[in-house]
Amino acid sequence: MPVESGSGATARQVKQKRKAHPISIRRTNSSEQERVTSQREMLEGQDSKLPPTIRQTLLELFGQIEREFENLYIENIELRREIETLNDRLTAEGQTVDGGDLSKGQLKAKASHSTSQLSQKLKTTYKASTSKIVSSFKTTTSRAVCQLVKEYIGHRDGIWDVSVARLQPVVLGTASADHTAMLWSIETGKCLLKYVGHAGSVNSIKFHPSEQVALTASGDQTAHIWRYIVQLPTPQPVIDTNMSGEEEVDFSDKDETDGDAEGSNESPTIRVPSTTLKSHQGVVIAADWLVGGKQVVTASWDRTANLYDVETSELVHSLTGHDQELTHCCTHPTQRLVVTSSRDTTFRLWDFRDPAIHSVNVFQGHTETVTSAVFTVGDNVVSGSDDRTVKVWDLKNMRSPIATIRTDSAVNRISVSVSQRIIALPHDNRQVRLFDMSGVRLARLPRSNRQGHRRMVCCTAWSEDNPICNLFSCGFDRQAIGWNINIPALLQEK
Fold first, then answer.
1. pLDDT on residue 465
2. Closest CA to 29 of 64, 58, 60, 56
3. What is the pLDDT of residue 88?
4. Which H or E run includes 444?
5. How far is CA 198 from the centre of its chain?
6. What is the rounded distance in angstroms from the CA atom of residue 481 to the CA atom of residue 189?
7. What rounded mean pLDDT belongs to the chain?
8. 3-state secondary structure of 481
9. Does 233 sit behind a cis peptide bond, omega within 30 degrees of 0 on the bond before it?
10. How far, in Å, CA of 118 to CA of 76, rounded?
11. What angle do CA 99, 100, 101 make, to 5 degrees?
């Protein structure tokens, strides 16, 4: 009861009312069923573009909402009666004991407390009911336009980063906590090459814009540049016809990579880098190529980002200013711009377009660790955070975000589709969600006990021109997944 009473008689009245309550609800539910039936019959005679199953689901969900509100309405009536009874008794007691009226402020406070509790319950019920409707239709849409195509299994520990080569042959790259980076055939899921030159966790991988060269960052406090040569295997249609991927992965909690890892050991191995970048005093958490591929930037837990010359391996600039460990770095696809993110809740924009000087801008839009900030082809930056939000910023006016996406879980390394400007959000809660640049949710990638990630999703990466998989994700369940996103259908649904 929201209001306390010192009277046993009043308590008995309340109990009697609560005993009679279920009877009223049952009667209401009976009339409710008749009303839903009549509504269903009326709607069945109307023309609608909705499939019958969706219409049926919609009717059932609205019926549940109406029943919840009706039950709350009955409880509201009972609570009002209780409040009136208690107010009368408290007023009488106040006159007897004090010889005056009981403070109206006390009565108003008690009534306000009860009303606020009821209001909160109504809001909670409404949000829960409407979320069921939204989830129902989003799930239907996601299954239609987002399909799991291939799993890439072979790492012996979680995969931190995933990237797609920018030139032929187009391969998938993964960076893992098992101290290795692997290159994969997108079509067959076969490991083509393994890089084992690092002495610590490999935290990121990025491909050179115009050469068969990869850049990896590691917990051994270094970044490595290494050349690769791969030959794509001939696709085997018999194996690849299983588009759901259900027969390719056992989703039990065993060491799922043991068998596949043995096969990956047969692939060629590179043990020595062509270039080693050393200057950091802590874990190198990320690295990326500047436009043109002649310089690279690295981000470290030593709170600095370093700019290196690739040919000479020399340190060109040390970018200082963050108050805590860096979490990510990203370069602009066409301009000499770098954005770094940090645990200090900020991200910084570094401008190297003028060789003589470099400027920096600090942006404070989040309340917790900024896990990543990435550029789009246009003049936007998209930042994600452990505060469960993603913000879209305009480079021309970055005082405040132009869009904010609020989610139910921490966001990890995000990616933005170059052509369609769709944001892919990997979450701690194993979900991957797609949003447009205005913050409208487009889809959630399918996930069940038979497909999708089973642990934290660490990173996503788009592959614009690949006809088989155009989005990839990786997670701490030791696998990367290739998805086919029907973007025209996705945008049409919006």
1. 80
2. 64
3. 80
4. strand 441-444
5. 29
6. 9
7. 81
8. strand
9. no
10. 7
11. 140
d(CA 401, CA 196): 41
Sign of the CA dihedral running 37, 39, 42, 48:
negative
Q: What Cα–Cα distance (Å) separates residue 107 from each residue in 70, 94, 121?
A: 27, 11, 22
pLDDT for the residue 186: 96
In 311-323, which positions are buried (b, 16+ CB within 10 angstroms) versus exposed (e)? Answer: eeeeeebebeebe
Q: Output the CA–CA distances (angstroms, integers) from residue 269 to 163, 185, 357, in the order listed.
A: 19, 15, 41
SS3 of 319, please?
strand
E strands, 343-421, in order = 347-351, 359-363, 370-375, 380-385, 389-394, 403-406, 415-416
Centre a 10 Å sphere on the Cβ of residue 299 and count the other Cβ atoms it contains: 32
Alpha-carbon distance 130 to 143, whole Å?
Answer: 20
User: Residue 54: how many CB atoms within 10 A of its CB?
Assistant: 14
Strand partners, 361: 349
Residue 458 pLDDT exceeds 90: yes
Q: What does the alpha-carbon distance between residue 373 and residue 330 come to, in Å, rounded to a whole number?
A: 7
Quick one: which of 473, 491, 476, 400 has its CA closest to 162?
473
Coil, strand or helix at 435: strand
Residue 52: both structure tokens together: 């019958």
Give φ, ψ of 409 to 5 degrees. -155, 155
Half-sphere exposure in the Cβ direction for 356 (13 Å, CA)? 0
Q: Which of 41-55, 247-261, 404-418 has the lowest mean pLDDT?
A: 247-261
318-371 pLDDT per residue, tens: 999 999 999 999 999 999 999 999 999 999 999 999 887 788 999 999 999 999
Give yes or no for a contact between 321 and 360, defined as CB atoms under 8 angstroms apart: yes
The distance of Cα 429 from the centroid of its chain, to the nearest Å, equals 8
Grouping H, G, I as helix, E, B as strand and the rest as coil, residue 191 is strand
Q: State the Rg of the chain over Cα.
A: 29
Provide the whole-model pTM: 0.69
- Stretch 232-256: mean pLDDT, rounded? 46
SS3 308: strand
- Please provide residue 255's backbone torsions phi and psi, each rounded to the nearest 5 degrees: -75, 85
- Mark 232-261 as b/e (b = at least 16 C-beta within 10 Å): eeeeeeeeeeeeebeebbeeeeeebbeebb
Sign of the four-CA dihedral 238, 241, 246, 250:
positive
Q: Which of 31-35, 203-207, 228-232 has the lowest mean pLDDT?
A: 31-35
**Continuous H helices in 100-243:** 104-145, 237-240
The mean-pLDDT minimum among 120-124, 159-163, 306-310 falls in 120-124
Q: Which residues contact 487 (CB under 8 A, 6 or more apart)?
A: 145, 417, 420, 422, 470
